[in-house]
From TrEMBL:
<comment type="pathway">
    <text>Carbohydrate biosynthesis; gluconeogenesis.</text>
</comment>
<comment type="similarity">
    <text>Belongs to the triosephosphate isomerase family.</text>
</comment>
<feature type="active site" description="Proton acceptor">
    <location>
        <position position="174"/>
    </location>
</feature>
<dbReference type="GO" id="GO:0004807">
    <property type="term" value="F:triose-phosphate isomerase activity"/>
</dbReference>
<comment type="pathway">
    <text>Carbohydrate degradation; glycolysis; D-glyceraldehyde 3-phosphate from glycerone phosphate: step 1/1.</text>
</comment>
<feature type="binding site">
    <location>
        <position position="180"/>
    </location>
    <ligand>
        <name>substrate</name>
    </ligand>
</feature>
<keyword id="KW-0413">Isomerase</keyword>
<protein>
    <recommendedName>
        <fullName>Triosephosphate isomerase</fullName>
        <ecNumber>5.3.1.1</ecNumber>
    </recommendedName>
</protein>
<dbReference type="GO" id="GO:0006094">
    <property type="term" value="P:gluconeogenesis"/>
</dbReference>
<comment type="subunit">
    <text>Homodimer.</text>
</comment>
<keyword id="KW-0324">Glycolysis</keyword>
<dbReference type="GO" id="GO:0019563">
    <property type="term" value="P:glycerol catabolic process"/>
</dbReference>
<keyword id="KW-0963">Cytoplasm</keyword>
<feature type="binding site">
    <location>
        <begin position="12"/>
        <end position="14"/>
    </location>
    <ligand>
        <name>substrate</name>
    </ligand>
</feature>
<feature type="binding site">
    <location>
        <begin position="241"/>
        <end position="242"/>
    </location>
    <ligand>
        <name>substrate</name>
    </ligand>
</feature>
<dbReference type="InterPro" id="IPR020861">
    <property type="entry name" value="Triosephosphate_isomerase_AS"/>
</dbReference>
<dbReference type="InterPro" id="IPR013785">
    <property type="entry name" value="Aldolase_TIM"/>
</dbReference>
Length: 262
């Protein structure tokens, strides 16, 4: 991991933990990281609760001045109007979200989100002052047919076409076959794709954007395997699903520097 990119350890809770559970979780997480003298200047930690938890999480983090960031798991491509069930980026920003996940494979798969929709959501996030955490990744079939990098790179290119060179963006490489499977990509496999993604960032947005944009790996990350990913030069953190629901496990992932020997 390059020294000029602050690593980001992000927990995507998906559809887990209600607002009461979210309060207990965030309190325990902050306590656990404080106990362990986690260095928040060296590693940024963020949680992505369900929409219904965001107000509780915001209130707790603000009241106790907890050094945690948070964001939504999705955002509408529209800012307001007759879109039943959708959540505006303006609403997320009003709740002081810093980030929003865009284009997660579960949204692409279960909600038929196309590259075009994902690109519109990236724009909506930026328009509303949110940093998009743009997810890209190939299925097992994609991998067999096109190799490791073609699909994630094409998804990235489609989502960032037309963005200004100064756009603040996080990219999360999540091979679909690794998500929730217990079988992560190897650090070397993940590095190969993340390097290709960085090259695509450079081609689209220039050298500075490529050098400053954080690229996360996601897919069956846990405390026992985080160090291998964080040793890779083009991996700047992790987007964690299942393991982010266990406070001790997630805190241990956030303290990856101990595992890496830093
Ligand atoms: O957003 C997170 C990813 O989908 C990874 O999920 P997982 O850690 O449960 O494999």
């Amino acid at each position: 991991m390059a020294v000029n990119r602050t690593p980001l350890i992000a927990g995507n809770w998906k559809m887990n933990l209600d607002h009461l559970q979210s309060i207990a979780f965030v309190q325990k997480l902050a306590w656990s990281l404080k106990d362990a003298r986690h260095d928040f200047d060296q590693v940024e930690v963020a949680v992505f609760p369900p929409f219904t938890d965001l107000r509780s999480v915001q209130t707790l983090i603000a009241a106790d001045k907890l050094p945690l960031e948070f964001g939504g798991q999705d955002v509408s491509q529209h800012d307001s109007g007759a879109y039943t069930g959708e959540i505006s980026g303006a609403f997320l920003r009003a709740l002081e979200c810093k980030y929003v996940i865009v284009g997660h494979s579960e949204r692409r798969q279960y909600h038929a989100e196309t590259d075009e929709v994902v690109a519109a959501k990236v724009s909506a996030a930026r328009r509303n002052g949110l940093v998009p955490v743009l997810c890209v990744g190939e299925t097992a079939d994609d991998l067999e047919q096109h190799g490791p990098s073609a699909v994630p790179v094409a998804q990235l290119q489609a989502a960032i076409a037309g963005l200004p060179k100064t756009a603040d963006l996080v990219v999360a490489y999540e091979p679909v076959w690794a998500i929730g499977s217990g079988t992560p990509a190897t650090p070397e496999q993940a590095q190969t794709v993340c390097k290709a993604l960085r090259t695509a960032l450079e081609e689209a947005l220039g050298q500075d954007a490529a050098a400053s944009t954080r690229i996360l790996y996601g897919g069956s990350v846990k405390a026992a395997n985080i160090a291998g990913f964080m040793r890779q030069p083009d991996i700047d953190g992790a987007l964690v699903g299942g393991a982010s629901l266990d406070v001790a496990e997630f805190a241990s992932i956030a303290r990856y520097r101990q595992h890496v020997g830093l």
